[in-house]
Amino acid sequence: MSRLIGNLRELYRFRVLIQSLVGRELKARYRGTVLGFLWSFLNPLLLMIVYTAVFGLIIPPRDVAFNSKPLVYALYLFTGLLPWYWFSSSAMESSTVLMANGNLIKKILFPAEVLPIVTVTANLVNFLFGLPILFAFIGLFGGHYTAFILFLPLAILIQYIFTLGFSLLISALTIHFRDIKDILGNLLTFWFFATPVIYLLSNPTIQKSAAVRTLLNLNPMTHIIEGYHSALYFGELIHWKRMGIALAISLAFFWIGYSVFDRLRDSFPEEV
Amino acid sequence: MHAIELDHVWRVYQKYSARHRFQTFKSAIVRGDFFRSIKADELVSAVEDVSLMVEEGTTLGLIGRNGSGKSTMLKLIAGIAKPTAGTLSVRGKISALIELGAGFHPEISGRENVFINGIMLGLSKKEIASKFDEIVRFAGLEEFIDAPVKTYSSGMFMRLGFSIAINVNPDVLLVDEVLAVGDAAFIPKCLDRIDDFRRRGKTILFVSHDLTMVAKICDKVAWMKDGRLRMLGEPQRVVDAYLQDVAEKQEEDFQEKKEAAAETPASSVDGGREQRWGRREIEIRKVILRGPNGEEKHVFAPDDGMLIELDVAALEPHKDFVFGIGIFNSLGTLCYGTNTDLEELVPESIRGEGRVVCRIDKLGLINGTYYLDVAVHKRDGYPFDYHKNLYSFLVSSTKRDEGIARLPHRWEFGPNIGIKAQGK
């Protein structure tokens, strides 16, 4: 534990480095594209359109909550998709980030954990760029602006901690088990459907089956995404118990992820 | 004060075998037992039991063959690799020129890369801003600094990397062979900078295969061999010892090559360049190259003497015969050729077995591989036994003079000209 605190203090010293690398990442990502930063919005937007078309129009949501109103469903979808997109792209990029920057690890004295942290943070910034669109959609698609939006930063913070922990773990393990890169793609697909993004958690089919309910409740992303839904879609107080558990799990994940990373750190220069 | 201290430092690597690196996923996770126990024969030590103290302000050269552990040493000192055993400490800020421009992002401009690279190397934004113009000027990239780095030539890339690293203003500078890629104009600039460092009393560790440069700029030289520190001391002495060792190795290689060549028919080697003809009425049975003291040798220094020893045998007595030699360089240029007839030695008789020795007091050749022709023929040119390109030897020297021969010479200067030998 004291080692972790020491590491975190060390990390604080590298904040300028993290800052500038995030800036570089964002600049470099869309350099040379015609639409540039617009892609930050376009990616989740296009995803939303596809899902709305399939699950809103072709297979209309059976849930009475949406009352065959595709736009309301689209808003619900987007509320969950945007943070999910942040999580999944962070995880995917983390699985390759150490290998991609192998020459940093091998050739200069460089704190390797900065790399997954930069990945997650750059994706966070991308996510934040998508928020104005989400806010606009609340008005356009018949949602409600409520004071509960103020809980949004809390959901973001918890997700940030969780994603950091997961990304640190993935990036360190992938160095040794390269299979993880391939496993991860499939895992994330499964994980996506095990998180209430395209359906409501209160969906009767889910609530009826104890097994499915337990599975969803064990998934920290369920509670995090529900936090977004509460703050932005339902306009209600977040579930403190759920969020508390999500925070505890996130912190634990962060601790595990960082410890594993720290333990494997010395092997990186040889293995990347 | 010691800037760098290594105390019985070892660095052991695992030999690469992609499989069986780990027990299983299960044991890795359950027992925290990430690595299975490794057998001794799966390990290879890059640095073995090295103890080394480098005084503050010393420029230490690190020489040795490829794979002798020089780069691992630098990485250990830079902190990139951790010692497997032993302790290591470095006083002050380190800047390692191990790979220039490591961490440049190809998509963004040189300007942005300077800032980010500088931060990676431990500078603050303010420091970089104040040194920015100097960095760009030194790299000679004023025109291109706002272009993406991917459009740079490899030379521009390297210059920018060097320029940033040298401007970090470290207390300890580690240089790994990076100067080899610079062009004729940039290398002197780099050496100037390194010299400037020396004058300011900074510690420099310099890995290079350019022994002349090492002997020139270093206060001390360490020679690494097979992971061990073989010798440490005054530059010229260590460089000479190293060269001696290299020559011995070359000698061995030569022997091996010769033995391998002996097993294949001479004509098939080197596409028929090596040939032997003549009816061997007088036969050259054996050719041996020896040093001035009679030891068999194939690697010579330019000033060494050389004995070319021919064992000959005549089936019948002959009265008309000439022995000759010819030394060719690798381009096929005849460097020197002579025979007994040209030197007005008159043959009288040869019968049975005998020995002919051509004694060269001073070889006087430059660096390179040489091929030797030996022959015995009649005065009118009728060959008894002609060996073309069948023998070779190496001249190995730190001197870089050019041409086909090294003429014996000396430099002298008048009283108003100050000039001295390197490294003195």
Mean pLDDT of chain A: 88
Low-confidence stretches of chain B: 265-272
Q: Specify the CATH class of the domain at 2-92 and 171-244 in chain B.
A: Alpha Beta
CATH homologous superfamily assignment of the domain at 2-92 and 171-244 in chain B: P-loop containing nucleotide triphosphate hydrolases
- Beta-strand percentage range of chain A: under 5%
Q: Structural class of the helix and strand makeup of chain B?
A: alpha/beta
Uncertain runs of chain A are: none
Q: Tell me the radius of gyration of chain B.
A: 29 Å
For the record, the CATH architecture of the domain at 2-92 and 171-244 in chain B stands as 3-Layer(aba) Sandwich
Strand content of chain B: 25-35%
Q: Helix and strand succession of chain A? A: HHHHHHHHHHHHH
Task: Indicate the multimeric state.
Answer: heterodimer
Cross-sheet strand order for the largest sheet of chain B: 5-6-7-3-8-9
Protein chain pair with the most extensive contact, residues per chain: A-B, 25 and 30 residues
Task: Summarize the amount of helix of chain A as a percent range.
Answer: over 70%
Give the number of DSSP strands of chain A: 0
Q: How many β-strand runs of chain B?
A: 18
The rough form of chain A would be described as globular
CATH topology of the domain at 2-92 and 171-244 in chain B: Rossmann fold
Helix content of chain B: 10-25%
Provide key terms for this protein.
heterodimer; A: 272 residues; mainly alpha; 13 helices; 0% strand; B: 424 residues; Rossmann fold; Coagulation Factor XIII, Chain A, domain 1; 8 helices; 18 strands
Describe this structure in words.
The complex is a heterodimer of chains A (272) and B (424). Chain A has one domain. Helices cover 77% and strands 0% of the residues of chain A. Chain A has 13 helices and no strands. In chain A, α4 packs antiparallel against α6 (114-140), α4 (70-100) packs across α11 and α6 (114-140) packs antiparallel against α7 (152-176). Chain A is globular and about 60 Å long. Among the domains of chain B are: 2-92 and 171-244, Rossmann fold (3-Layer(aba) Sandwich); 277-395, abc- transporter (atp binding component) like domain (Coagulation Factor XIII, Chain A, domain 1), CATH 2.70.50. In chain B, α3 (110-120) crosses α4 (125-139), α3 (110-120) crosses α5 (154-166) and α4 packs across α5 (154-166). The model of chain B is unreliable at 265-272 (pLDDT under 50). The A-B interface holds A 16-17, 20-21, 24, 27-28, 31-32, 101, 103-110, 176-177, 263-264, 266, 269-270 and B 13-14, 21-22, 25, 34, 75, 78-82, 94, 96, 98-99, 102-103, 105, 107-108, 112, 115-116, 119-121, 124-125, 148.
